[in-house]
Amino acid sequence: MDPESRPDGAAGRTLLALVVNGERREVAVPVHHTLLEVLREELGLTGTKHGCELGECGTCTVLVDGVPVLSCLALAVACRDAAIRTVEGLGCDGRLHPLQQAFAELGAAQCGYCTPGILMTAAALLGRTPRPDREAIRIALAGNLCRCTGYAKILDAVALAARRMASDAGAPVAVEP
Amino acid sequence: MTEACRTDDGSPPPPEPQRAVVGRRLPKVDACAKVTGETRYADDLVLPRMAYAKLLRAQHPHARIRRIDAAAARAVRGVYAVITGEDFPPVRFGILPVSQDEEPLCRDKVRHVGDPVAAVAAVDEETAERAARLIAVDYEPLEPLMSIERALAEGTERIHEYGDGHNVHKLVSLEFGDVAEGFREADLVREDAFFFEGNTHLPMEQHAAVAQWTADGKLTLWSSTQTPHYVHRALGKVLGLPLSRIRVIATPNGGGFGGKSDPFSHEMVVARLAQLTGRPVKTTLTREEVFYTHRGRHPVLMWVRSGVRRDGEILALHFRTWLDGGAYGSYGVASTFYTGALQTVTYRVARYKFEGCRVFTNKPPCGPKRGHGTPQPRFALEVHLDRIAEQLGLDPAAMRRRTVVPQHQKTVNHLTVTTCGLPECIDRVVEASGWTRKFRRLPYGRGIGFAASAYLSGAGLPIYRNDLPHSGVVVKIDRGGGVAVFCGSTDIGQGSDSVLAYVVAEVLGIQPEDVRVVTADTDLTPVDLGSYSSRVTLMTGNAAKDAAEKLRALLVDAAARKLEVGPAEISTREGRLFVRGDPARALAFDEAARLAEAAAGTLVAAGSYTPPRRAARYKGAGVGPTPAYSYSACAVEVRVDPETGEVRVERVWIAHDGGTAINPLLVEGQVEGSVYMALGEALMEESAFRPHGLHKIPSMLEYKSPTTLETPEITTILVETRDPEGPFGAKEAGQGPLLPVIPAVANAVYDAVGVRIDEVPITPEKVLLALDRKAQGRVPRVGPERLPTLAFPEPIRVPPPWVDPAGRAAAAVHGQGSVP
What we know:
The complex is a heterodimer. Chain A has helices at residues 35-42, 98-106, 115-128, 134-140, 152-167, and strands spanning 13-20, 23-30, 61-64, 67-70, 83-85. By secondary structure, chain A is α+β, with helices and mostly antiparallel strands. In chain A, helix 2 (98-106) crosses helix 5. The longest helix of chain A has 16 residues, at 152-167. In chain B, 63% of the residues are buried.
């Protein structure tokens, strides 16, 4: 559907259905709005943050079909057929995901602003590599900037979550694509 | 790794009563909210009918404003209001009383690229942006003064009408004892020059604020600020409103590091726009705007001369600093004093002279960044001492160890050192890093460097002169056993909310889960001065302890009466009050609470904390004192590639004396984060500007900050002296550990490839240049070649404390040296 143009030059809105955290929602969005803007502003899912809106810091990372994506660089309309998962969808039935649990226990979230993006990136890592070594965790998180922690406890927490998930493989906490 | 330290006299400390909460590695009280994305930062707030504001910022670094024409902007559909400086009373603001030089929107002049001149409130951000671009500003450009030299040059325009000279914001000249005498007695006199480039905080969260004006004449501002109390005061001044009608709520900060400690134009602007439109108004700075808002680390040129005995004892130290302050005052006067204050609190200094100068330039204003004016001189001093150790043939770590300041004494510039765990920190780092077998022994291209430092646990004096407490806490106990703690402090990620919960829980004998913390709301919480100067654990912790102990006494009295014992026999732990030695005779906490409320009335108590008054009487003595100093020692191992000049940090060992660790997890987090931030500054970060005023690299990737790949493993050693002034003995950890890392890197580079980079950041280009010079047989150094010729005034001469304990300036001699 083409956006209607109005006398003041603003684009019209397009109706868009997105599947976010397993729920189908319909929103009317300007066609040029990013997935980040639509998640935060139309869907009220403010757990996903912006750090630069240029794709440089990883803060806005969400999973699109299980793959980490910089939501500030993704057009919402391009995600209409994808399964989108944000930090709000990481836990299950009011319980924390093992990554969230490990981050909380080990003090891996200081200001917490980079945390959602890092959790999603880490979730994708553990989805494809259940037993990553420390170097693999570093590499996977190399696109997520944190200014508070020096990454030390973040790496520890991802490793701890991985160990727990691997030894508890029956628990329904794996992030579905 | 956490280990207790010996007490002052060297004997082992008495056994600690085993604590239920303090000292435990507990999750933060807001951990769950942060890992689920539920924490509401300022930009997450949405109010009905909310408008969005954008600021129009100057593209010129220095210009007079002739005319602003906003007609075209106002005509854009969806625009609610457009304002300029004329829409505010002609009142200036600023964090320090002595430099209130900022306007919410510039009226006559812009002083740096990014200086705000107008603002638009509109239905959405895009409309606001589009309208802002239609505002026509007629500027008369002036010569941009982009360096200290140019700003000081004759015939140039004055950036401000106030100050200590032509584009000189502040001049400081102090002498303690006679340094000339010390130089004469010394076995070695050496001087060096250094430059520390400016850099910025780069918090992950951009500044954001939401203002709401209600028809009953009240204003509420939510803002990502570290200092809601100072914002409160500034808003009242700028808007001409009584403070009782303004409510400032600091939202959880997504990183501060000092970059959110000033009252800002964007906060004033949303408040005014909310008043004018009758709608809530939000603004969020873009990342580029955050670079221009700045308030970051001052670029500082430094010169140091010391006279030492052959064992490394410092007989005289003369230190000069030139700060490039940027376009406004911000915290700059304090920053200037800080570049000279703490040189004396690590190693004994017998005589000291400090001259400092802050210059205005047409760049975004510099302010406080983690360490506030002390990382730069600490870099200079520690590299200078490294050279001295080499000249004297001494091991740098051993030389420092031998000259550490004595505890519980005043320094030559009248600073009171209380506990000092630096000797233990040095020993632990030397041991953990394998220093002795590595120093000067690693193969070419690999090196190890050492440095030590000190920092404040909160400034001893407030920013505006008053006799009020620095921190207030109210604790309320509910008859259901829940406890609420109210405090004006702001959690910027360091865990200050959690510290309040831990302290209160420990005192009352309950778990932190039963404590609700309400903070940073000028309507609801008692004043806390803010999250700066590493003051929060010590000051709010003490205030919380004060309040909780009052309530504990009421609970204990009630329990004692019920259990028919004396109050002294009641213990509190894990939610119970019980007879010591007979724990079966007990009351649950909520039972005791109800009994206490019945006896004493509603259970609420207030506590407060004011630092001990220790400042000397000379002008400038107010910067430097603190309830207690923290200490840090650091060794860094590097690998330098002689082909590319690249410096790779392989490993960092850091020992930090932050007093008792209330939660070692949080303290380690601060140490690790400080080390991380230091490495970024040491190797890659620079706030550099083009001649026409633009920031060269106002984006996160170009500015560069270490990712997981550049950050090495950090070994953290906590040395826990128990400081009598701190709550349960705690001192600070949020800033101190940054300081020794940068000079340790520089010293390691020298150890690796034999070149001195006397400039920060230590970039590959500089290393290669120095290696080239070395190959040509020239001095293997990159650093400042010349210094400004600005003459400092005759110093205020203050006798050392062993001559005059009060620290008054000496009577004028030759008509000079008196307090102006």
